Amino acid sequence: MKDFIELFSVLDSELIKTQAEEHSKVVFDYFADQVDNSLQNALVSELIVRYADMSKQLEDKNKTLRRYNEHLEEIVQEKVNEISASQIATIHALVKAAETRDDDTGAHIERTSLYCRVLAEKLREAGMYKSIMNDAFAENIARASPLHDIGKIGIRDSILLKPGPLTSEEFEIMKTHVIIGHDTLSSVVKMHPGNMFLKFGLEISMYHHEKWDGSGYMYGRSKEDIPLSARIMAVSDVYDALRSKRVYKEAYSHEKTISIISDGSGYGFDPALIEVFLRHNLLFRDIYNKLSG
Ligand SMILES: [Fe+2]
After folding, report:
1. Which helix (H) or strand (E) holds 244?
2. What is the Cα–Cα distance from 207 to 181, expressed in whole angstroms?
């Protein structure tokens, strides 16, 4: 009996470590060395049953593991989608609340998000800024663009909602929305350093009023020192502002707007971006028409 126990304990450990063919070899080698013929038949029968049982158990475990892994992937993907969707929904609600203070329809953020996506996709298709562009760029900028004016939360109503042109002093205060945007988002970015949605949001909120020639605000950056995300946002934001009615101006036509933006190429805007914008300008017009009023 003791021999059986030792035999099975040796066999069990070997069986677990090796594949089916190796198992058989170990078992029969062991028989040849350790037991006489009278025991072989009984042991072989017993071992075949045990092996079959272990094989069945291993197969069942593998099936369970495969099902678990498949399910795990689904669970992880669901969670990623949930987090992503809830992040966006929350930010969207916050930004919309801020945006509707100075935009009756609140559609500005929806339209600018679509302009940003179109520009990014067309840049990628044209093979431009290859070192920066990747598969996720258009998605990230579209999601993060609603954060561009998040700093307006900190601008008082008497300036933000003033029914007329701002004085120079008031305009200086209005400019600080990019600093407030930075202050609002930078601490969150530090807590989530790998989150591209937040990284893009920070870049855009800080630098969307910078100009290609360095004459923008608040950081005086120029050319490619301005992050590409913010350069795309600038074109999108200005296109939408020009098309929209303001207290100090009427809504401009698509043609007048593209003419003004075209004149700003190399001054206010990245000339490479404007080239792509002009080539696909009708997409901007269509987005505006679809989501205005
Ligand atoms: Fe802004």
Report:
1. none
2. 10
Give 269's strand partners: 265
Residue written as token pair 């800080």: 206
- C-alpha of residue 223 to centroid of ligand 1, in Å: 19
207 CA distance to ligand 1 centroid (A)? 9
Longest distance between any two alpha carbons in the chain, whole Å? 108
Domain boundaries, the chain: 2-70, 100-290
Q: Distance, CA 190 to ligand 1 centroid (Å)?
A: 23
What is the Å distance from ligand 1's center to 115 Cα?
Answer: 16
> For the chain, what is the mean pLDDT?
81
Q: In angstroms, what is the span from residue 163 Cα to ligand 1's centroid?
A: 18
Distance 166 CA to ligand 1 centre (A): 15
Contact 212, 234 (CB under 8 A): no
Distance 150 CA to ligand 1 centre (A): 8
Q: 228-243 and 137-144 are packed helices; what angle lies between their axes, rounded to 10 degrees?
A: 50
Euclidean distance between CA atoms 103 and 128, whole angstroms: 34
Distance 121 CA to ligand 1 centre (A): 23
Please state the pTM of the whole predicted model. 0.70
CB atoms within 10 A of CB 62: 10
Cis bond before residue 218 (omega within 30° of 0): yes
Q: Quote the ligand 1 centre to 174 CA distance (angstroms).
A: 9
Is the C-alpha dihedral spanning 229, 235, 236, 241 positive or negative? positive
Banded pLDDT at 4 (limits 50, 70, 90): very low
Residue 212 near residue 270, CB atoms below 8 Å = yes
CATH of domain 100-290: 1.10.3210.10
Q: Are 110 and 103 in contact (CB under 8 A)?
A: no
pLDDT in tens, 147-203: 899 888 889 989 988 888 899 999 999 999 999 989 888 888 888 778 888 889 999
